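Narrative of accomplishments. A recurring question from our advisory board has been how the design workflow behaves on a single, concrete structure rather than in aggregate. To address it, we present the structure tokens for one chain from the evaluation set, followed by the sequence designed for it. No filtering or post-editing was applied between the two.
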């Protein structure tokens, strides 16, 4: 149930403010109350809103967290990752997702994540899958590499049986990750667990496409930054009678997306009508499952905090959401961004990557500066030492010196600090600690 919103904080909000002060978190009380008021209004009105000035649109609650400060930057990357409309055949709507869609509160965002609705008009499902295979292959090969970008991998389809690839056994049902060379060849070569030669064909994988995603490394020379740019596709088939069917059997809701072009409102509206009436409950349940996973299995309390924020703002637990909003603005959370960017640096130094080494070195320098600004004492010295070793390895990368040991050491140390920071803050608030315990118990 949403708290009462007035000029004075509710009892729940007063407790949040006191907890923030005790933890040394700077929570602006007036700003928090203003946000609570806006959330209550958004909850009452529901629906999707269009910002006429910028041309972006999305769910009312989502738009409250979006800042257009870096909109030109994200639209520039969007031109790389987006799919083109084909009149009468392919309709698309590109959106920002993840931390990029919450730029008003995510002071230190991670990757440049995009989400694109792709509606394919075709006589049969099989033909729709064939069109998907064709446009994904054309996109991957036409945007394989350039002066400031490199395609890393594409996910399409899932393994129909256990498959041995590069000496590793992959279980049936796992998503298939394709390298650019494999996409060009149209096949992946491997073995059965029994040692017999086996292969996976691109066109066959597209018949049950499952998770469709493209990942690039992108350089921004002006900002001395690298980023991982991904585009997650939600693909639907529109039959001649107008029936719309998700090719992965599930039509994603729109609770975390900011669409970049108002001209795509018609296609968005057409698809949004198909979203299940239980979409919100399903979305929250999926986030709860991820919270449990990142608490008990792949431990990452930074990801726990991000998912809890989305759960709380969508289920009316606004005081807890307001508390988490302030966490994302704390200087120490820059380490979450640093951890993500180390992986990006790793991707940018692969042998077949065409990103100029100077861009990678510039990013390494930025990582060092970010840590110096965020930390002090022994923690700062230790991580900076790892990062300087990482940079030194980069300068010798052309001679074949391995990057992985330095990258992994720095990443492990940083994610440990990130986990400790978010864990201490999350469990310090009884309401959040109890919620985490309930979710993991389920």
């Amino acid at each position: 149930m949403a708290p009462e919103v007035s000029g004075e904080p509710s009892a729940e909000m007063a407790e949040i403010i006191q907890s923030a002060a005790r933890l040394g978190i700077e929570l602006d009380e007036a700003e928090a109350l203003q946000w609570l008021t806006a959330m209550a209004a958004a909850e009452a009105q529901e629906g999707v809103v269009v910002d006429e000035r910028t041309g972006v649109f999305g769910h009312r609650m989502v738009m409250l967290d979006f800042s257009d400060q870096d909109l030109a930057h994200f639209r520039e990357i969007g031109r790389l990752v987006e799919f083109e409309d084909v009149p009468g055949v392919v309709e698309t709507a590109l959106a920002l997702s993840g931390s990029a869609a919450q730029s008003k509160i995510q002071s230190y965002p991670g990757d440049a994540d995009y989400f694109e609705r792709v509606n394919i008009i075709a006589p049969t499902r099989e033909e729709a899958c064939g069109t998907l295979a064709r446009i994904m292959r054309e996109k991957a090969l036409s945007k394989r590499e350039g002066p400031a970008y490199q395609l890393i991998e594409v996910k399409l389809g899932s393994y129909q049986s256990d498959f041995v690839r590069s000496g590793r056994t992959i279980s049936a049902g796992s998503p298939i990750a394709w390298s650019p060379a494999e996409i060009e060849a149209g096949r992946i070569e491997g073995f059965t667990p029994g040692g017999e030669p086996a292969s996976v064909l691109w066109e066959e994988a597209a018949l049950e496409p499952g998770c469709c995603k493209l990942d690039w490394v992108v350089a921004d020379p002006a900002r001395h930054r690298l980023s991982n740019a991904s585009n997650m596709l939600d693909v639907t088939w529109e039959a001649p009678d107008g029936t719309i069917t998700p090719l992965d059997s599930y039509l994603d809701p729109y609770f975390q997306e900011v669409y970049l072009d108002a001209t795509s409102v018609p296609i968005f509206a057409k698809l949004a009508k198909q979203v299940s009436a239980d979409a919100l409950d399903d979305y929250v349940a999926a986030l709860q499952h991820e919270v449990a996973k990142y608490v008990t299995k792949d431990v990452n309390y930074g990801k726990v905090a991000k998912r809890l924020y989305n759960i709380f703002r969508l289920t009316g637990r606004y005081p807890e959401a307001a508390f988490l909003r302030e966490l994302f603005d704390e200087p120490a959370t820059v380490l979450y961004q640093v951890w993500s960017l180390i992986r990006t640096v790793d991707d940018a130094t692969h042998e077949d990557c065409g990103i100029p080494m100077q861009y990678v070195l510039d990013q390494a320098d930025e990582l060092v500066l970010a840590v110096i600004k965020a930390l002090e004492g022994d923690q700062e010295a230790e991580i900076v030492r790892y990062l300087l070793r990482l940079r030194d390895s980069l300068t010798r990368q052309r001679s074949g010196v391995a990057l992985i040991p330095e990258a992994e050491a720095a990443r492990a140390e940083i994610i440990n600090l990130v986990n400790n920071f978010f864990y201490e803050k999350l469990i310090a608030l009884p309401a959040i600690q109890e919620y985490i315990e309930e979710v993991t118990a389920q």
